[in-house]
Amino acid sequence: PTAPIPGPPPSPPLPLPVTPRVEPVQSLSDELELPTTTSLSFGRQETEMLTVRPVNTNPQDAPVAMGAQHLVLPATGMLSSQMQEQSLLARVIAAQESVRRRVAQRLHDGPAQALANIMLAAEVCAKLLRSNPELVPSELEQLKQMVTVTLQETRKFIFELHPMTLADLGLAATLKRYGEEVSARYRVQVPVLVPQVEPFLPMGKRVAIFRVVQESVANAIEHSQASLIRIKIELFPGRLVMVVEDNGLGFDVEAVERAAHAREGLGITSMHERAEALGGWLRIESAPDRGTRVELSIPLQP
User: Fold this and answer.
1) What pTM does this model have?
2) Contacts by 171-175 with C-beta closer than 8 Å and gap 24+?
3) Pair (50, 117) in one structural domain
4) Contact by Cβ (8 Å): 231, 244
5) What is the pLDDT of residues 47-101, one digit of tens each?
6) d(CA 273, CA 292)
7) What is the pLDDT of residues 190-213, one digit of tens each?
8) Is residue 5 part of a domain?
9) Which domain holds residue 264?
């Protein structure tokens, strides 16, 4: 008889399905523990690593233990996200405090000082009314001029804080008025070039563009000793480009941006963040003794 042909070895029996046992957890802290010796580094900050204690480490319940151990990744992810939120919150608070300090300084040096001078002038008028009444009219005229100047300065200050013309007249008219006021106050030339027909822009975009212009002009006045600061708005298919350029001293862009990031500077950093928030980009071109050019490009559609 012919010998039988050997066939493949029999397959091993399939393992019975294991139903994981899930125990209810009262709170996340019940299953998480913070060791004192293990840490993870996120950038420059260091924080303790979250580890997860399995519900049951019996080999028969391996699926349950592995499922519990996989919670390590979400825990570290939550921690990283939490750190980012805290960092963002810290930056927002720092920006708010910086603005408040600037507002307080402006109020102290401007309207508050002017009001104190007005009080002194009023007291002089009261004394002259008893001693030399004939001098009172001229003193009152000076007092009136002081009040007029203080009112004008206060209105300019309000305009810088929140220009109402952005909502009423639009971005182009606001930039023209801003250029005129900067030119008159600091004795620099500030031509403003805008398109004849202004596209519709949501209020958030108008404010962001205006703030970038403000920061760029302030930097040119404070640091570059410029005599000419040009503000220009150009329209391209689907995009709006804003340019602020000056003929000042210029600077090393890379060095300044590194320093701004190192100390979490709010000027240049805030301009980049505004551009990114609008879905656009911001570019700064400068060199010593060659002036500075700030260019912001944003999409017209949201």
Assistant:
1) 0.57
2) 171/198, 171/201, 171/206, 171/209, 171/210, 171/233, 172/198, 172/233, 174/206, 174/210, 175/210, 175/213, 175/231, 175/233
3) yes
4) yes
5) 333 433 444 444 444 444 444 444 444 445 666 777 777 766 676 676 667 667 7
6) 19
7) 999 999 888 889 998 999 999 999
8) no
9) 163-302
